[in-house]
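Here's my example:
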Amino acid sequence: MTTQFPPIDRDKNHLTAVDEEAVRLADALEDHPGTSDVTDADAAGDIVFTAAGHSWVLDFQAGPDGEVFHDPTGAPADGLATDVLHDVVVPALLAHPAYPAATVNGNTLTVHLASGRRFTLALTPAA
């Protein structure tokens, strides 16, 4: 017996673009050997993971227009967070075909999508 499922109705998808991107980012980080305990923390799109012996939070940043998909605004630099972005997060994302580029500015990561859109995330230590 074969079970058939109806096609997905994209108009009824309860995930927002940020939620979908958070799931994809979490999957990319989970596949990287330098990370562990990766979770998509909540509906706001935060991603929590462990790398370099610490727990971290990647938080989607809204731009001046209130949109998540935008150009970076910059953030204060933190040595260890910047190292984790450069050494762990960027290589994990670049291994995924949806992310042709990712750039770091202090604690801020700009992720460039294959579609041409981009968004920023701030990396902070988990509480």
About this structure: Strands lie at 36-40, 47-51, 54-61, 101-105, 108-112, 118-125. Residues 70-77 have pLDDT under 50 and may be disordered. The two ends are 50 Å apart (CA to CA). The chain has two helices and six strands.
